[in-house]
Amino acid sequence: MPRFELASPPLLSRSPLNRAEELRKDSAALQAGWSDAEVLQVDHRGRLRIDESGLVYTPAIEIAAEPVPDAVFLGIHGGRHLWAQRVGVLTGALGDLRTAGENLDETQLSILTSALAILNWHASASFSALDGAATTPSSAGWSRTSTSNGHEEFPRTDPAVICLVHDGADQVLLARAPAWPERRFSVLAGFVEAGESLETCVLREIKEEVGIAVSDITYLGSQPWPFPRSVMIGFSATADPDVPLRFLDGEIAEAHWFHREEVRSALELGDWATDSDSRLLLPGSISIARGMLEAWAASGS
């Protein structure tokens, strides 16, 4: 079977937002833009205000007369400066990226994904990795500086591979994590370890999770995944469906080989939230896993 490719970039990879990196250290420009800037406020559960038009912003001037230290400058949108801020309590109609992402356009998705990733990093970076001293936000929220020695630390992103394993014909291997409800399956994934290449991570993770060897590892695409601050790097690989599956590291509750027609039927049903008694339910469209499965399902006869 010929190799398949993603039909289009994953939803969260489409980033039309102008990040305006050149302004992050320009305090005068940031101050000047604050008067008509908008702030995307996010609570500690990753929820924010959403209405029928999408993301709901708070006028910056209602928060303070000048940029506040805990806000992050995201860029310029609609001619206005756009910031993000973590807050304790939000009122009104709330949603999050997982539940509302499919209803947002590409620009709104890039705004929300960036906001979640950088705010999640700040939540775990209050102290220096060098000496444990307290750190404070700098560069409009795109770094943190140690209060003891001035060392500047930058946002951390954790790379993870996600791999669609197929048999080279009409079967794909899908798995369910122990915390997932029954019948919810997806492709295999895992974090890249220190000193490890992406391809080596694919080999190791699949061996650890389901006990089989893969070959013909092929890059498909990538997307940010701010849960809390990862980037998912997609691959496909082939394996022998006759090799017994063995769940070696406890991260997989069950895994099965599914036929292409089963996957096509499951895709037509919708996603994990579908009210169906189907044996197979698949991820929603904000995940690169969905695009990988759609591309593989469409590639066969």
Automatic annotation (TrEMBL):
EC class name: hydrolase
Pfam family, one: NUDIX-like
Gene3D superfamilies noted in UniProt: 3.90.79.20, Nucleoside Triphosphate Pyrophosphohydrolase
Chain ranges of the Nudix hydrolase domain: 155-280
Keyword set includes Hydrolase: yes
Catalytic activity: a 5'-end NAD(+)-phospho-ribonucleoside in mRNA + H2O = a 5'-end phospho-adenosine-phospho-ribonucleoside in mRNA + beta-nicotinamide D-ribonucleotide + 2 H(+)
CC cofactor: Mg(2+); Zn(2+)
Keyword Secreted: no
EC code(s) of this entry: 3.6.1.22
UniProt KW keywords: Hydrolase, Magnesium, Metal-binding, NAD
GO molecular function: hydrolase activity
Family: Belongs to the Nudix hydrolase family. NudC subfamily.
Classification via NCBIfam families: PRK00241.1
Protein name (Swiss-Prot/TrEMBL): NAD(+) diphosphatase
Organism: Rhodococcus sovatensis
Taxonomic path: Bacteria, Bacillati, Actinomycetota, Actinomycetes, Mycobacteriales
Designated gene of the protein: nudC
